[in-house]
Fold:
Amino acid sequence: MNRRAISPVLTAGITLALTLTALTACSSSPDAPELTVSGGYMPRPVNDLGAGFLTVTNSGDTDDKLTSVTSDISDDITIHRTDRQTMREVKSLDIPAGGELDLGRGGNHLMFMNLKSRPEQGQKISIELHFEKADPIKAELPVKETNYNPAHH
Ligand code: CU
Structure:
């Protein structure tokens, strides 16, 4: 008898909880960064060092940052900024709202140290990009010829 009386109350409670969760998720989305990854590649490595290039586009209203990259192929992947042909490791790179982060030949790039295997041209390596705010994004980088440069095509 008591059980029957209680169960509608429980049901109402669960419904309310679900509704609140949905509202919270909705209310946060307009301010969130909306990131997509495109144009990625890795020039075929000639030793145990690899470079990675890609573009992260932010179509949201909030700035974000690329903070780290992980991959099965290397335990030591760093983000490098290039200034006047000198590169240095940085903790993050900005991905402005309504803009993009462009990693390309001669500029900022990802550096893969101590490659566990040396990928051949035509293969793909899997990476995961981590951001300050947005959820991680998985991407595949096709391995191109060693001196490949899309800017020359
Ligand atoms: Cu570098």
About this structure: The pocket of copper (II) ion is lined by residues 80, 87, 109, 111 (CB under 6 Å). Residues 56 and 101 are 5 Å apart (CA to CA). The first strand starts at residue 35 and ends at 43. The chain is about 20% helix and 45% strand.
